[in-house]
User: Fold these one by one.
Assistant:
Number 1:
Amino acid sequence: MPAPYAVHPQQSRGRQYAEPAPAYRSEFQRDRDRIIHSKAFRRLEYKTQVFVNHEGDLYRTRLTHSLEVAQIARSVARSMALNEDLVEAIALAHDLGHTPFGHAGQDALNKCMADYGGFEHNLQSLRVVDWLEDAYADFSGLNLCFETREGVLKHCALKHAQALGEVGQRFLDKTQPSLEAQLTNIADEIAYNNHDIDDGLRSGLISLEQLQEVAVFQQVWQAVNARYPTLTGQRLIHEILRRLIDLMVTDLTETSLAALRGAHIADIDGVHQHGTPLMQYSPALRAQKNELKRFLRHNLYFHPSVYRSTWRAQQIIEALFQAFMQDTHLLPAEHRQFALRYSETAGESGQARAIADYIAGMTDRYAMKQYSELFDFSRLV
Ligand code: MG
């Protein structure tokens, strides 16, 4: 039985386009199924998380990242009696709007779109599920439940919130989303903090010795070392990381349950109206987690080797955007039609939005292919 403060499917605020209830699934299971069957979901396989896709087969991609987020979120949801189907749907959809080349791509596209309303990947994930998927006869997008859309839109600039209607309202009212949405957001962070350590070590860009400066990592390493003093290599790394994930998940679960009890939260309204998110770490673990994030930022995301790929990725995105803006005939026919149609109502910003949709939808390898087709002039001879 879901807890009283969980999202209950029968209380869902429904879909934008009304549909008969599914016979043998919950509404949120149906959402999850639509997400898995979407084109945007399949593209996640070829989109960078941190390491560019072709650098090695064992690195996380946005697809495996999304699966790890879903796994962590479901474990916590089950132990807290939250809605497991809903967290799974949100987790699998949360990165659907991500550009090729990870955060480098998002930053570059946001820069290109500066004069045209900007580009935010959370907003783009919502745009994918609300509008860009085009497989259903009766509607554009996936026509997901309000609660799934609310979870997908985890952040949003206030200037955009107004235009989004009911799903943007909480940013204006400063109310909290469901516990399931809060949980998936934190599960995202648990997943990437841990898998980025793993991928960082695999790449050789960071070392176990360096990681000793991070208190929580050292604490877990010592525990592993006490039990397996001779363990090295992959097994050592995995034994540390599985404990680190467990430590974060346990702290999150226990702290959040205590917060729910302490605030006497009886139902979902209590969750929405509470001044701060109820899904939370203890202050001690939050500080440790922030230290870990600072380490990764400094030593991995800004490592010269990663930074060089980041820079190259940005050149590709910017060059494609400028080329398509200069001449829409360079776009595939379908996307040129969107550019023309959107520019009828929103002028140059409309054209830019259609181009941003096209670029954001690209996988890493598709973007690289487009770039070489347009800019490799040896092809002319
Ligand atoms: Mg993510």
Number 2:
Amino acid sequence: MNEEKRALLTIGDKQYDLPIIVGSENEHGIDIRSLRQDSGCITFDPGYGNTGSCQSSITYVNGEEGALHYRGYPLEELAEHSTFIETAMLLIFGKLPTRQERMFFRNMLAEEELLHEDLLHHFNGFPPNGHPMAILSAIINSLGCYHPDLLEISDDTLHRAVAKIISQVRTIAAFAYKKSIGQPIMYPDPTLSYCMNFLHMMFSIPYKHYEPPPAAVEAVELFFIVHADHEQNCSASTVRMVGSSQANLFASISAGICALWGRLHGGANSAVMQMLDEIRERGIGVKDYLERVKKQEFLLMGFGHRVYKSFDPRAKIMKRAAHNLLGSMGGDDEIIHIAQQMEEAALSDDYFVSRKLYPNVDFYSGIILRALGIPVQMFPVMFAIGRMPGWIAHWYEELNDPQTRIHRPRQIYTGPTRRQYIPIDER
Ligand code: ACO
């Protein structure tokens, strides 16, 4: 951290000399920690678009240039050369693993993949059409009851806790799906790779083993890598906020899953598919649809991002993967055609150009998930499996940051000023 630069803030006739923190990619932040105490003022930033909540060495996003790096490595390189598990290790433990470290962690994942048998009863407590995000969040939180030794995590227990969560989130997700369609659950198969094992638990049935085509495994791998982290987004910030009260890892991640569920965050990929389906089924012209977006009747789902003001690099990878997958497996060509038409029309329309609205990661990812046979309700669950390494990395970084304080923003109060209580008969 470089603190040589200073910022001068004038409030009335007083000046405040504030340090400027400079990050390793030359991002600048005015350190206002002493501002309220010195001046009585706080800063006002609804939605936190200009607020740095922490210093972090996990992920770097440059929204203007459309760059995304995990621990310094560009996403494009990881997507080309790495696997999801290696990427997860990079994010959580801070470096790319050696062959031996990766093998050790793979074995741990296999050891940890079975849920405690008693935990299976919890699935029966949910109605058949219960949303899998509610089930995922509840069961991840319940894991803490079955593993009280992991409620406090040290360097000694970190690997086991990480392996348990990364491995079991996939088991829980697949069991929730099987429950929702009334099929018997399929136990994990430790001989399979992470993504193949997931597809097996999702799509095998007791008398028929599912053999996914290589393109499907590759698409799942890419989907998970692309979603693995995205610095201080809504769900990661939720995990950090909950963790800042020293809540355990399971509880903090369970909260992150709930944050991800919203339509404006992890729920956007299903909203994109609903939009594309509606356009096709009702025969709406793409241009007509965009006109209604421009009248602000509704948002163009899968477009826009708080940070990216140019192309979301994840969207480029997802677009290519969608084409590859549909090319080799066959699938819904018409939907991808509509999506492409929509992208081209929006990117040549001043409304979207002037607001710097580009396709985000969710625009093409739903097409991939549908081609894989994943039902729409499971889309945010897929995002959650992918995002797990990021949430864990943020939780652990927060826990070990000596500057961490419980997250507790201030507010500007706008309610009534002091008034006297009125007894009920006089109201
Ligand atoms: N469609 C149409 N107009 C949009 C869209 C959109 N998808 N997104 C933003 N705009 C417009 C806003 O209406 C606003 O217009 P105005 O200046 O005339 O008022 C302008 O662009 C600026 O947008 P903001 O609201 O400031 O954008 P913000 O940073 O608050 O929101 C968000 C970002 C939530 C992602 C937003 O773009 C959106 O809702 N997109 C659709 C949902 C979506 O795809 N979410 C996934 C995000 S990626 C992820 O979570 C993995």
